[in-house]
Design goal:
Layout lengths: L1 H39 L31 H15 L1 E4 L2 E4 L10 H31 L9 H43 L4 H38 L1 H5 L11
Antiparallel strand pairs: 1-2
């Protein structure tokens, strides 16, 4: 029974190593070309960043002049009329004036770009994770001497970990964008007369577009750097130690 399990583990390792080599030799070059074309496509070619702006659809209520000598009853009547005109949403005692549809949408232009980039980020993370396991399986048992090839394997593992970590951080960056933008939009809804909040949302959208373009560029560069590193050292990665000692004499 144990022999059967050992054979299955051995087959798994052989299949895993072949698949990992295919990722390096076939998938990485394809990804480099694909991301380079995506970077040069119309999606990221935007010289005027104002094209990334979206109408928040949060109306600015008309100002109402209230005389300080007016009675409280008149003031309450004016407040009530404002609520009827703008549409009032009370959240924890705070009045927020919304558009008639009652919804402030996301920036659909950036959302489309994010929907394209998220699978690419996830793919790089998964491939780096797989290649880490591949190199780990190729590391020989610990012995004294002749460890130059092992050091190359360890350096390759370190590079794979770094690129995997950086790619995972891009996903955090996307979630932080939506959280921060949501807070700013809520400020716009709460204080519709304050122009700075509206401008802050526009600046954030422009910044996110630049960040997403940079992410696409970094993903392409990561594939190119990893492909170059592994291909140049493929012999030492696959066979870190040799039995040939003729060069020592």
């Amino acid at each position: 029974m144990s022999f059967c399990k050992d054979d299955k583990v051995k087959d798994f390792k052989e299949h895993f190593c072949k698949e990992a080599e295919t990722i390096v030799t076939d998938d990485f070059p394809k990804k480099i070309i694909q991301l380079d074309e995506l970077l040069k496509s119309d999606m990221f070619q935007c010289d005027d960043l104002t094209q990334m702006h979206m109408d928040l659809n949060v109306p600015i209520p008309d100002p109402v002049l209230v005389n300080s000598h007016q009675s409280d009853a008149k003031r309450r009547k004016l407040d009530h009329s404002l609520d009827d005109i703008q549409g009032e949403l009370t959240i924890q005692g705070t009045k927020v004036y919304l558009n008639p549809a009652g919804k402030v949408t996301c920036n659909t232009k950036l959302t489309k770009i994010i929907e394209v980039m998220k699978p690419e980020i996830r793919t790089l993370v998964e491939k780096c994770n797989m290649l880490k396991m591949w190199v780990q399986l190729l590391i020989p048992r610990i012995e004294d001497g002749n460890n130059f090839g092992v050091s190359i394997q360890e350096d390759t593992l370190g590079e794979l970990r770094q690129y995997e970590s950086e790619a995972a951080a891009y996903l955090d960056q996307i979630s932080r964008y939506f959280i921060t933008r949501g807070k700013l939009v809520s400020k716009v809804a709460k204080y519709p007369h304050v122009e700075d909040y509206r401008r802050a949302v526009e600046e954030m959208d422009e910044k996110e577009f630049i960040s997403l373009r940079l992410v696409c560029c970094e993903l392409r560069n990561s594939y190119a750097a990893l492909h170059d590193l592994i291909v140049k050292n493929i012999e030492k990665i696959k066979m870190p130690r040799t039995n040939n000692t003729e060069s020592l004499y």
